[in-house]
Amino acid sequence: MSRNKWQVLTILSLIFLAALGLRADFRAGFYAPVEQGAMRQMQPEVSSTDANYGAGQFPQLEPELAAGDGKETLERNCSLCHSPRYVTMQPPLPAETWAAEVDKMRKVLGAAIPEDEAKKIVDYLSAHYTPETRKR
Ligand code: HEC
To answer: Which of 86, 87, 107 to mutate to test the pocket of ligand 1 (most atoms within 8 A of CB)?
Structure first.
C-alpha cells in the first residue's frame, strides 16, 4: 500500500473511534435493563400495614434477693422509685452503712417508710448484705 492510503486509513480509523465516543456520550438516558437494576432504589421498609405497633412488655429482670425475714418488706418499700437491684449492685456494706442508706432514702429522698418497717429492712440488709453475711 502506498503511504497515502495508510494516511487515509489512519484518519478514517480516528473518525470511527471519535464517532464511537460520541455515540457513547449520546447514549446518556438509555439504560440497558441490567443498569436499570443497578440504579434502583431500595424498597421502603413496611413495618406495619395498619399503623399499629406493638412494643412488647418492658423487660423487668429483677434480682433474686436473699431469702429471709424482711425480704418482702424491703421489696414492697424499696421498689417504688428504683429496682431492688440498687441493693444487690452495692458491694457488701457494714450494717451501719445500710442503716444510713435506708435513713437517706427516707429523710433525704422522701421514701415514706414507717419506722418499724425501716428497722426491719435494716435488719434484713444487715443479715444478708454485709461483708460477713453476704453470700452472692
Ligand atoms: C422515694 C423514692 C425512693 C425510695 C422509696 C427508695 N429509694 Fe433508694 N434511691 C432513690 C434515689 C433517687 C436514689 C439515687 C440517689 C443518688 O443518686 O444519690 C436512690 C439510690 C439508692 C441506692 C444507691 C446508693 C445511693 O445512695 O445512691 C441504694 C443502695 C438504695 N437507693 C437503696 C434503697 C433501699 C434499701 C430502699 C428501701 C428502704 C430505697 N432505696 C427506697 C430513691 C428512693
So the answer is: 86
Residue whose CA is at the smallest distance from ligand 1 atom 1: 111
Q: Which listed CATH number (3.40.50.300, 3.30.565.10, 3.30.43.10, 1.10.760.10) goes with 71-128?
A: 1.10.760.10
Q: What is the DSSP string of 60-103?
A: -----PPPSTTHHHHHHHHTSSS-THHHHTSPP--HHHHHHHHH
- The tens place of each residue's pLDDT in the chain, 136 residues long, gives 688 999 999 999 999 999 888 777 666 666 666 665 566 677 777 777 787 777 777 777 788 899 999 999 999 999 999 999 999 999 999 999 999 999 999 999 999 999 999 999 999 999 999 999 998 7
Question: How close is the Cα of 124 to the center of ligand 1, in Å?
Answer: 16
Of the residues 73, 82, 125, which should be mutated to test ligand 1's pocket, given the most ligand atoms within 8 Å of the CB?
A: 82
Q: How far, in Å, CA of 125 to CA of 97, rounded?
A: 10
Q: 0.70 exceeded by the pTM? A: no
